[in-house]
Amino acid sequence: MPEKMPTMREAIESKGYSRRDFLRYCSAAAAIVGLESLGIPKVVRAFETKPRPPVIWLHFQECTCCSESFIRSTHPIVADVIFDYLSLDYTETLMAPSGFQAEKSYKDTITKYAGQYILLIEGSVPAGNDGVYCMIGGRSAESILQEAAKDAAAVIAWGSCASNGCVQSAKPNPTNATPIHKLIDKPVVKVPGCPPIADVMTGVITHLLVFGSTPELDSQGRPKEFYSRRVHDTCYRRPYYDAGLFVESFDDENARKGYCLYKVGCRGPVTYNACAVTRWNGGVSYPIQSGHGCLGCSENGYWDNGPFYQHLASFPGFGVESTADTIGTTVGIGAAAGVTAHAVATNIRKRKLIQKLKSESAELKEDSNEGGNN
Amino acid sequence: MTAEQKALYNRVYVWEFPVRLYHWLNGITVTLLIISGFLIGNPIRLFYANEAYQQYWFGTVRFIHFVSAYIFFFNFLVRIYWGFVGNTFARWSNFIPLKKKQWREIGQVLKVDILLADPSERMSVGHNSLAGFVYFLTFLAFAFQSLTGFALYSANSTSFFPRLFTWVIPLFGGDMAVRQWHHVFMWFFIVFIIIHLYLVFYHDYIEGRGTTSSMVGGWKFEKDEDLKNSND
Ligand code: HEM
Ligand code: HEM
Ligand code: SF4
Ligand code: SF4
């Protein structure tokens, strides 16, 4: 039998927060999920009545940058409270228990709160060689995933590893690192990024808590709230793009003027993320603002689309430096040269044919108009 | 010279007006798309040391690309339609070699074009079978370029038409890959145009029956004796 959980408000107040703190947090949460101020009571009501859901946060093949990002969300109160009110019943990095105790806490959560807990996953699952590349507590990542996903109320894939495979799945992908959505048949909310923006992470969780449902997703399974626009469409350097003013190299005059980074490889035009809007580290800056192009870290396959400092990726199979243009130019010149050689050869080899065509030409009578008035 | 040596030709109306209009609209828009697309992929250094509010040339290049793209796409749809209702020479059966005879002609054209042999049999007065097949591949490339192009464009636009193409992006795994392939296919068109122009002139030269001008006025010419041999 599932146990009754305290409501979020109770959880928050038991941590010593005042009602004022609680309401402050509710307004921040409402803003994050895109509600106007009239929507704040909705958030308050949800947090006062809904039970606090238990959370399991699993770590597979990853670098923990998602966790690192998460604990740095902008609103101290949001970050604080998220950790306090969400009972992180199991997460290898942050939980208090360890060893058998930790495993027990995990088992307890998935049995006691079957159908209620939120499953958060950081990292990809190595599907190669029966999963020996990632074993936790003597079990393969995949078997843990399957067990935990079975009774989860919602599954969230944190970061590009869990969403897309990320660098571990870079060619030739030796461990067959596989993103979560390919392994389980439940809907997965993908929150890609390397790491994802902290405020986007807390925003997705807040949405789940406030609305009790997963946010609306785009065609690739990412919440539209945060991933519906390209970095390029919200970039403050965009006017330079439209004006055709580009940085040519990182130390030129144009870089100092803050021109657009398109020609030095910026992936903003092909990347869907909230960086230019939310920014990082409490809204301080984001990569482009600091003078570096976007790497496209929230996009599938970004790790194989290098070199990062040229506009197009290199062409597979033709060496690192060759882009589609180098090959295209070669083929184009080849075609032009071939055609020229062909024209010369035609006039030599087809002498007779051309002679024949000429001999078929009709001749005009003397009194025609042609050739002047003689 | 004897009278028999003179060739007698009949005029054949091969390319109807919609085909010719399609061809030139297509030629112009593809050229504009290549030039503007090339600039989008490799912006040149122009008017540096200015401020953004003073100029908009890159935006204009993109605008030209998108306007040409719309004309190109709907023009292409008209040609697809005309392949079902146009004259024999415009029909789809010319483009997809399903008959033995078409394969034989492909073999002969390859001999004439590559081995530089002299033509031994009559060649179709419309597209020869090899040309038709290559145009078919070109039509597939047009379709590919339209799908990837409008998929990329859907990110810039909220209007319903480009939004119909959003499903293309997950097929490629993301916008980056779509862009990459869209760019690669530009080179297909550049190479196609070089070879196409050359072969049009070449066949005009060795067949002597008005190939080049046929796309302007619609007429080609067929010898008396060949007309008797033709059964299509
Ligand atoms: C000055 C430039 C051009 C000339 C003189 C020209 C001439 C011709 C001629 C004479 C034909 C008919 C050939 C035949 O009998 O098989 C033709 C067909 C064709 N050309 Fe061009 N062309 C030009 C440029 C282009 C360009 C830029 C494109 C675009 C990629 C293009 C695409 C095609 C296509 C797709 C066909 C098949 C037409 C159909 O049946 O719908 N051409 N062209
Ligand atoms: C023969 C046809 C076409 C050619 C040769 C062509 C070529 C190109 C090239 C070379 C690029 C630059 C890619 C890069 O390096 O980033 C490009 C970009 C683009 N093309 Fe095309 N294209 C064609 C048709 C179309 C069509 C039909 C559309 C439909 C709307 C389209 C929409 C776009 C868009 C949206 C971009 C990205 C522009 C940006 O983000 O600023 N293209 N095209
Ligand atoms: S810096 Fe990047 S994201 Fe910003 S406008 Fe230029 S290309 Fe777009
Ligand atoms: S700017 Fe691009 S690469 Fe950088 S964090 Fe944002 S999405 Fe990732």
Features:
heterodimer; A: 374 residues; Rossmann fold; Cytochrome-c3 Hydrogenase, Chain A, domain 2; 2 domains; two-stranded antiparallel sheet; 9 strands; elongated; B: 232 residues; mainly alpha; two-stranded antiparallel ribbon; binds protoporphyrin IX containing FE; binds iron/sulfur cluster
Description of the structure:
Chain B: InterPro entries: Cyt_b561_bac/Ni-Hgenase, Di-haem_cyt_TM, Hydrogenase_cytochrome, Ni-dep_Hydgase_cyt-B. The complex is a heterodimer of chains A (374) and B (232). Chain A has 374 residues and is of the alpha/beta class. Chain A has two domains: 8-226, NADH:ubiquinone oxidoreductase-like, 20kDa subunit (Rossmann fold, 3-Layer(aba) Sandwich), CATH 3.40.50; 232-305, Cytochrome-c3 Hydrogenase, Chain A, domain 2, CATH 4.10.480.10. Chain A is built from 16 helices and nine strands. Chain A has helices at 8-14, 19-32, 40-49, 65-70, 76-85, 99-112, 141-150, 159-164, 198-211, 224-227, 231-234, 238-243, 253-257, 275-278, 324-349, 351-359, and strands at residues 54-59, 87-91, 118-122, 125-126, 135-136, 139-140, 154-158, 177-178, 188-191. Chain A has a five-stranded parallel sheet with strand order 2-1-3-7-9, sandwiched between helices. In chain A, strand 5 (135-136) and strand 6 (139-140) form a beta hairpin. In chain A, helix 2 (19-32) crosses helix 3 (40-49). Chain B has a domain at 87-206. Chain B is 64% helix and 4% strand. Chain B contains nine helices and two strands; from the N terminus they run E-H-H-H-H-H-H-H-H-E-H. In chain B, helix 1 (17-41) runs antiparallel to helix 2 and helix 2 packs across helix 4 (129-154). The mean pLDDT of chain B is 91. The structure holds protoporphyrin IX containing FE (2 copies) and iron/sulfur cluster (2 copies). One protoporphyrin IX containing FE binds at residues 30, 33-34, 37-38, 40-41, 62, 65-66, 69, 72-73, 145-146, 149-150, 152-153, 179, 182-183, 186, 189 of chain B.
